[in-house]
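Provenance and format

Records in this collection were gathered into a single text stream. Each protein contributes a sequence line and a token line. The two records reproduced below are adjacent in the stream.
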Amino acid sequence: MKATLALLAGVSLASALAAAPAITEPVLDYTVVAGDTLIGRTGMLLRTPADWREVARLNRLPDPNRILPGQRLQIPLRLLRAEPTAALLASTQGDVRIDGQPAQAGAALLPGQRLSAAERSSAVLVLGDASRVVLAPGSETQLTEHRRYAVTPGPGATGQQPDGLFASTMRLVRGGIEVLASKLTRAKPLEVTTPTAVIGVRGTEYRVRLDGDSATGTEVLAGMVQADPARAPGTVIPGGHGARLQAGVPPKLVALPAAPDVAGIPGRFERPLVRLVLPGEPLDWRVQVAADPAFDRVIRDLRVGAGAEARIADLDDGVWHMRVRRIDAEGIEGFDARHAFTLKARPEPPPLASPPAHAKLPAGPVDLAWAANLEAASYRVEVAHDARFEHIVRRWSDLSAPRATLPAAEPGSYHWRVASVRAGGDVGPWGDGQQFELRPLPTLPQGGISGDGKQVELRWEGRTEDKQQAELARDAAFNDVVARAELGEARWAPPTPAQPGRYFFRYRAVEPDGFTTPWSGTLAIDVPRDWRMLWLLAPLVLAL
């Protein structure tokens, strides 16, 4: 027959009860039922049956042969029959190891063994009482104690109890863990030890994190914990509070920072490198990314400075889960804000090659070119007047080669972008748009004769802010230039040639930003032998 136990407040250092004094060590409170004898009952529970005498002594029983129904006995845990048992590795993500050897979900973690998770890796450990321990990326812990006591809880127990009572202790070696301690009755509180503190809990949710070898940070999200720094008085930390635990320093409770506002974080990202900021945040913040909404499979764990940008790389396309929390000046981390997002970054858009960004081109056809993407079977291309691509000028939906030609377009500002398409129709995101500008072509020059008929004056349309360059040559190819000028206005009176014959004129503008237009069309000028009488402007203007 199994014993019936009444565990007051679960189990721990019991308070003084009726005829039994308080015992300053972990105990079980046993409620005597009809038919019990001390020797008979303890013989079933104790490692060594003869230890009933110590039970009688500790409980100050005047007559060990006489115990009454309803009477409570305190039995030290050290005397009870127990056996080491394994905890279950319920979930793994990435590189998880037990004592340095690769481990997968379903593996057993025995007392004394170490569980580690590399960077970008995590694990979930389930203890015998159904408590869950999440090992953060870059962390390591040791299961120092995990015992099952062959007893069942009695009327004071709550919830669905496993067969027996458990006592568990974990030692945090590096990094951090998150604990969701079940509300089931235990043989003693679940304990987490660090070089600077011992943290004991019953049913609660909390975090423990090492800050080097000098301090331990803990935050209680629900319930409460007993935090005992080394060589200093301990304290109870209630839900919604945290403390920095240092050896020899009494802990100071602080309220957990509130969850930040993540409403501004996009729900979709289209670049392999996910970038996000929390504008206006005065505190550092932590961001974690997991493959599941329960955050059992955490793959990124980053601390980000106030106002800085979080950069998360190497995520696969799909749905991801993010949680973000503030970190105060003492390193205490607050409540989580959660956010789900979709990553669709592949096939990646190709880099744009030509025209280069912010290129200035003369109005006319424009050749567009981009780098080939080996994942792409075809490409989509858009050209628009605006950066939001709301006013489309031209669209191509199925280009097999990494190039296209935009037919002659009006002068103005244009934006273009490209997306890759896999075989089968999987369309990747648009690449970043790139801008170019088409500048007007030079107008045809005009000319007139001065009042005395001895000088020609050439005029053309030009902007006052532009510089003008003009040339006069003996040949249409302008290999034999007889005069050139840099001008501040769009007119020129070239020197009269020394010899008669046909001459050729052209101009171009240099804009304030350095853009130089193409040469204008060529104007032919005939200089007669008696050039003093008249210059003749040829009616023919040569093509650009």
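Adjacent record:
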Amino acid sequence: MKLRYYQEEAVDATFDWLHTQSTYPLIVLPTGSGKTIVFANIIKRLFEHTGGCRILILAHRQELITQARNKLLSVWPCAPCGVLAASIKEFDSQAPIVIASRDTIASQKRLEAAGHFDYIIVDEAHHVGPDKSSRYRKIFDHFESTQYYAPRIFGVTATPYRMGQGFIYGLEDHFFGGVSYQISIPQLIKDGYLCRLSAFKVDDQAVIDASTARVKFKGGDYREADLEKLAMEDDTMVSIISDWINKAYSKGRMSSVFFCVTVAHATKMCMLLQNAGIAAEVVTAETPSDVREQILEDFENGVINALCNVAVLTEGWDAPRTDCIALLRPTKSLGLYVQICGRGMRTWGDKQDCMLLDYGENMHRHGCIDRARPAAPPKDGEKRIWVCDAITEAGFPCLAVNDWPQDKKCVECGADRPIMMEAPEKRPPSVAKDKVSAFGNVLSDELDGEVEELEKVKEVETIWAEVKTSKAGNTYLDVKFKVMDEYWPHSMPFMIGMNGPAGRLADKKWRAVTGRGAVPRDVDFASEMVNAGSFDHIRKIAVRKEGRYWNVVSVYV
């Protein structure tokens, strides 16, 4: 397998670091750029360079373990690798290359049975926290203290920071000493290796505004119980579905992933989508593994158009055909926000971009994902917390937020105090009340240069209508506006005659444009009405930049 130019650079830079510097390096590559391929090639080179060595790969989730093995074997089909993971019932700790579950190998018995390792690789290295009693540190300390030569360690991640800690690398008080290689998201988009993520305006009525509601903080992030109550308001959920249908589904985006707050929130969102005629399913940590695998396969094959999830699809899941990310929760975690955004940036077929519909105002909270910087670690004396990373029976981290040092055991699963230490932050100022939730930028290259004009008013020359069929097979009315000094017309779609939110939105738009109460139920008849002059009273249209496109937002008569 031929490596991309930046992958070759990452392999060379990290290999050189391991043999010339004493600190542990970190490889920072965006989600979807092939970080697993990179460390698989480093493993192959290390093994060949040394004439045989022992390498340990650490991962905290089953999906990452399986992915690491598959990618290593694709790079090196005869790689002498074994898997040590209770979740998939494989217990090979004697192979030259061991891909291990962090929690499985962390027991003292298994650590002693594993023997020595020359190199240790940490996948999703941002999970290595500052707590020296953590599972990761226990593993590192064991091999460093029992071997004549301490193993060389390096990590890979897309998000080199943690809540309450800031960046996870540096020469002071950090496990990783620095970054051996890093490349930006805009550069990979420019090179064609990542798909652009375009932020679109969301309806003000669909915004989940945690800044003005009575949402408390726990562990530096919004308390889920309060956030769930806010996100599950009926009017908000209906507005979100209507907004998503209008902006994504009706425009041919057939593979949307909804990131929800809780299981109850995801389940209700899925039900409402299904009631609207959308092929939707829900995946949570409670979903049986065989059912989850079938749902994800159906999504990959295009059978499912909307996938609702909770803390399941943020890491270690590849779904290149994803063309819309609907973020239905505010979060103070920059890492979580960036990981979620990355789910839609893989290239696939003729996919031009992935739409981001941020209903939680996270763009304004964190800024552009390629320039965002984590909050500084807490000062001495400030309240700290820990987030439980114990693996549940379903195979996913618990992620319950606990107070430090009051909670000795996890309040949700009862696990002993684990590792992630975070600090609360002050409540952000309201965004929605100023109506600036309508706009945002997810990538910095949208900000470079002069400030773009976001809305324009154009004089209309000609108006006509066409009957079209969406990718989902729905017939709709597409009204065209030819304006002065522009060759390409602007469009306004009407899902005439459809049931559910899309149809109600079409009715509302038709009445607003025509000023009439009666709405045609037949698309062909509606087209005849437009071409006969029903829209000729429109003299101007206002078009707004929403992501990469200019969409009609209002008309002037």
